[in-house]
Design a protein that fits this description.
Distance between the termini: 40 Å
CATH topology of the largest domain: Nucleotidyltransferase, domain 5
CATH superfamily of the largest domain: Ribonuclease H-like superfamily/Ribonuclease H
Radius of gyration: 26 Å
Helix content: 55-70%
Largest sheet: 7 strands, mixed
CATH class of the largest domain: Alpha Beta
Structural class: alpha/beta
């Protein structure tokens, strides 16, 4: 079994006269964050329920884990607070006495980066949301955070995918089928008699990519012919892959059956990619976005068009944020399915009522959050002042202008989350880990806000 925590009081070296202000501030921040975590033992208790799954005994005698849940949880926080990768986090913890003290690793060996990765993946997205809420409740009770005035906005965190085109997605399908079936062929050649031509398929993909925007009619005819040929080749390979998977599932060779599990998971998404490509190449159809797949590796990815000047189209998920005037994020929602901002304001108020037992005095948001007039009138009856302009001339009102200037503060928080906590692009795989990345980054942001406020 994994122990939840050990009683270790010492925290790092004391600040000496030779240390500059940045070093002293760095140590004070981690010391104060450690104190905040100690003041909220319910947070570690909730995380421990998830992390104890990493140390299930495999024998009757059992096995005691050398590292506690507190060690692993704090190592995950270091990775997020520093904005670094797992490997660098492992090295930095091992080489920094301050971080070793924060992780409670005095006189212990540092954990491997793979264990930090497993610890992060073991913590559920719901756990991050819950401990964020608990931290917020205690901060309100202690007077560090006030809930009378809130501001809300949305941002987009992109998934770790390349720019999706029909040819690139078809090439992804072909190379994954080639890789997995070649691996199975090395185990048993009989179920996989087909040959693959990855160089020819890649050549078709690169030809389409190079000349897709050509203004020459001759080139466009060649591109259309190449697109149809690529679709047919990939569809034929998909048929072979489906036949191979069915035969492999009936085999008595356990290694062969295990080798096709990955390919079997990809096949439904690949069939959807091929279907969309055929409708576009052969039928000339404009396929709706909700029927498209933008990555076979991250099929949950959505196309989000917000009209930004530098990046009008983004591939990821929309994040709804609500923060207090202390820049403490009181609530967040990771939207699996994109919705317009004008539909989100009632949800912001309802969630705040459920989490904190009341409604704020005022909420400020940009004009994209303005719902229809009937809904807006209902919300105005609940909120004392709802600063959501409906038209550009509403900014002429003095009170509206003041509140909109105050609302702009959440833009700085979003920028901080993207720069310091790496929320501009999520490098984790799957929607579950996507939600965990958002939750852990917001939790670390809130810890940083509370530590700076309490330390002055």
């Amino acid at each position: 079994m994994r122990t939840k925590a050990e009683a270790i009081i010492e925290f790092g070296p004391t600040n000496g006269p030779a240390d500059n202000r940045i070093v002293q501030q760095y140590r004070r921040d981690y010391k104060r964050i450690s104190e905040i975590l100690d003041e909220h033992p319910e947070i570690l208790e909730r995380v421990h329920q998830d992390l104890r799954k990493l140390s299930k005994a495999k024998t009757r005698r059992g096995r005691k884990a050398t590292l506690t849940s507190e060690n692993l949880f704090r190592a995950v926080l270091v990775k997020q607070l520093e904005g670094i990768e797992y490997r660098e986090a492992s090295v930095r913890i091992a080489e920094s006495e301050t971080l070793q003290s924060f992780c409670r690793l005095i006189k212990q060996s540092t954990m491997d980066f793979t264990l930090i990765n497993k610890a992060f993946c073991a913590i559920e997205p719901e756990t991050w949301e819950e401990i964020n809420h608990r931290l917020g409740l205690r901060a309100v009770e202690q007077g560090d955070v006030t809930l009378d005035h809130l501001r809300t906005d949305t941002t987009v965190t992109e998934c770790n995918i390349h720019w999706p085109t029909d040819s690139s997605l078809l090439w992804d399908c072909y190379r994954v089928i080639h890789r997995e079936m070649s691996r199975a062929r090395s185990l048993n050649r009989l179920p996989c008699p087909w040959r693959f031509h990855p160089k020819k398929i890649k050549k078709l993909h690169l030809f389409i990519t190079r000349y897709a925007r050509s203004s020459s009619k001759r080139r466009q005819r060649q591109v259309n012919a190449a697109s149809k040929k690529l679709v047919e080749r990939v569809e034929k390979t998909l048929e072979n892959a489906m036949f191979f998977v069915e035969r492999a599932k009936q085999s008595s060779d356990f290694e062969l059956r295990a080798a096709v599990e990955v390919l079997d998971e990809y096949l439904p998404v690949m069939r959807q990619v091929a279907s969309v490509a055929r409708r576009r190449a052969f039928d000339g159809e404009n396929v709706p976005c909700d029927e498209k797949v933008f990555s076979i590796f991250e099929p949950h990815t959505e196309l989000i068009q917000r009209g930004r000047r530098g990046k009008p189209i983004e591939f990821g998920h929309k994040i709804l944020l609500t923060e207090s005037r202390e820049k403490f994020i009181t609530d967040y929602v990771v939207l699996e399915k994109n919705r317009g901002d004008d539909q989100l304001l009632p949800e912001v108020i309802e969630r705040h009522k459920e989490k904190y037992g009341g409604v704020p005095e005022s909420i400020a948001a940009d004009k994209g959050f303005r719902p229809d007039e009937d809904t807006f009138e209902e919300l105005e009856e609940q909120i004392e002042y709802l600063s959501v302009p409906g038209r550009t001339r509403d900014f002429g009102d003095a009170m509206m202008g003041i509140w909109q200037q105050w609302r702009a503060g959440i833009e700085g928080t979003i920028s901080c989350l993207k720069r310091a906590f790496r929320l501009s692009r999520c490098l984790f795989k799957g929607f579950r880990n996507f939600g965990s990345a958002i939750g852990s980054a917001i939790f670390c942001h809130n810890l940083r806000i509370l530590s700076r406020r309490s330390s002055g």
